[in-house]
Amino acid sequence: MANTPEVIVGAPEDLGLRQVLVDGKRVGKAHSLRELRRILDRAGVDPGHEIQWLGGDSTVWPDQAWVRRTICFFMVLGLLATAWPLFRIGMSDSGDALTYGGRIAGLTILAVAVLEVLAVGAAIDYWGKRRWRYSGVVVLAGVVISLLCSATLLLLQVGERFTGYTVVGMVLGVWSAVALFGLFKCGAWKGLRIPRKIAIGVIVSTLLAAANLAYSQIYVPYVTTPLIQSGAEFRESNMEKGAKQVYVTVHLYVKNAGQVPVYILGSMYWIHGGPASSRPAAKPAGTTLLYVGEFVTPVGRVLNPGEEVAQDAVIEIKGTDPHKYEAIKARTEVYVIRKDRMKMTEDYERSLVEGKRLKEDCQPGDPPNAEYRYRTGISNSSEILNVTRGPQRVTVWRVGGKEPHVVVDVSPPGDRIRYDGKNPIANEKSSERYGLTQVRGTMVQTPYPELLEKAGSTEKNESPAPIPTPPPTTAPTQ
């Protein structure tokens, strides 16, 4: 009698499982009488042995296998539906994000995706034999992560276009809310046994470390604004002997004096001449456009912090009358976009369209009198932004006419801008999002009679006249 084992079958749990104890030691859980027999055979208990039943006799087996397996199927499906985009985003951002903070975020998302996969295995165990004590807690954590991911996805898409990921976020939000309610109802959190002081310490330490990392590696770089300087400077001037035109060298430059690298989407410079007034008290007449052109090549090049791009342009001014202009003025503009917030997916320089091709490709919303156009697709600084914002592209038009200028637009491929001649950068939202900036250089001017005087001195010394720079476009002189 001393060696006779004591067999106890516990009361049914929420899923219909009944715990089996032999001499006070748990040997398994049974869904049915047949499964109980297999457990007792493995424990060495002979058939016909006396069993003590708690919460019902041998006829009470409330387990409904099809219900349990259906719940498990939908739980696994929801967890996998959460893990897949997390893996996709995490793998992309951990290696290809444009910033250090983005790569750290990618590794974090990848770790969360691994936890979701672990939650899939825990779900199979929790709605199966429940051999692992913490399976319910892991499933609960996976569902909470799914709820947070769906909420984050929907919040990021506020103000954005409706995409397939919007539907994914809505479906996962509903699924995770229902699953969370069911898990709390069946007490999935009860398997957690962590002292309160240790839990609070871990949570506080994690939050402080995350806050410090977010501030130093994400917030500070994000709010740092580019500092781009541009300008022009008049240098030597000369003329050929007996000629009726003056050649003036203009030094044009753009410098990155900040800490943020940028793409140079386009550049322009204007040379104006101001006519002399007939009477000293008279109001000066308007200026005359002499030259307009670009001075940064190739377009789309990267300007890193501390780097400077400069070019000397030689312009031709017809007429040697010292009273024709009071002054010659030079002005520059550069159009840049932050390199740490986007990346060009195609060759921007080779996307040039002009002439007949540009007219054939003209669409409603394009600025009139466009001379040429550059266009390329862009990707955001992280994959999560690519998912929520969808495809984007940048387009740069050079517009001619009486007032040549540049129009820059960043928008989805299907959206057209409404052209506004008074607003060269029409999309203010993109300006803030990608750091799209129109950098206006300081205007410089020099007296025209002084240029003629210097050119005359050069002529007496018989210095050779410089060859005009090919790129600038000559505007008609009035």
Would you write up a description of this structure?
- The chain is an alpha+beta fold and 478 residues long.
- It folds into 4 domains: 47 residues, no CATH class; 128 residues, no CATH class; 150 residues, Immunoglobulin-like (Sandwich), CATH 2.60.40; 93 residues, no CATH class.
- Helices cover 36% and strands 27% of the residues.
- The protein is built from 10 helices and 19 strands.
- Strands 7, 8, 9, 11, 17, 18 and 19 form a 7-stranded antiparallel beta sheet that branches. Strands 12, 13, 14, 15 and 16 form a 5-stranded antiparallel beta sheet that branches. A 4-stranded mixed beta sheet has the order 3-2-1-4, covered by helices on one side.
- β2 and β3 form a beta hairpin.
- α2 runs antiparallel to α3, α2 packs across α5 and α3 crosses α4.
- The N and C termini lie far apart (123 Å).
- The C terminus is likely disordered.
Strand content: 25-35%
- The CATH superfamily label of the largest domain reads Immunoglobulins
Q: Remind me, CATH topology of the largest domain?
A: Immunoglobulin-like
By DSSP, the count of extended strands is: 19
Task: Report the uncertain regions.
Answer: 277-284, 460-478
Give the end-to-end Cα distance, rounded to a whole number of Å. 123 Å
Q: How many helices?
A: 10
**Portion of residues in helices?**
25-40%
Specify the structural class.
alpha+beta
